[in-house]
Specification:
It is a single chain. With about 140 residues, this protein is α+β, with helices and mostly antiparallel strands. It has three helices and seven strands. The termini are far apart.
């Protein structure tokens, strides 16, 4: 029933069992990856803007302050170069921040799932970033 490896003296499982387990594990990994992608797409589709303001701060200063105070995870993703549009996420808080270049000004927009109100901590962080003379650190 089992083949015995002459060198080790131990029985090996049949080849079909190893192939079956490999396919099962790879299928599970593929499903988890797909579920993560689908959840991200659904979260993006349900995001509604709850806060939007124009500011004279540079995109770099605004992005650094938001990354430090909210905090957003990962790094800012550049959505488009002209006009400049950057986007940052905090998946744990379900919060998206967008910075758009509008002429000489920048527009900061905050989106949450289904437009839920900002938490006190998030609103405080935004006020700190938008006050004149504030920096990230």
């Amino acid at each position: 029933m089992f083949k015995v490896d002459a060198l080790e003296g131990q029985a090996r499982p049949p080849r079909w069992a190893m192939v079956s387990w490999t396919i099962l594990i790879l299928s599970l990994m593929l499903f988890l990856w797909w579920a993560g992608q689908e959840g991200r797409r659904r979260e993006e589709a349900n995001a509604r803007t709850v806060f939007s303001v124009q500011t004279d701060l540079t995109s770099h200063d605004l992005a650094d302050c938001l990354m430090h105070n909210l905090p957003l995870t990962g790094r800012w993703a550049v959505i488009s170069e002209a006009p400049e549009h950057m986007q940052g996420w905090n998946p744990a808080r379900h919060l998206r921040a967008d910075i758009d270049m509008i002429g000489e000004h920048r527009r900061l927009s905050i989106a949450t799932p289904l437009g839920r109100p900002l938490r006190d901590q998030e609103a405080k962080a935004l006020r700190q970033c938008l006050e004149p003379g504030q920096t990230a650190g």
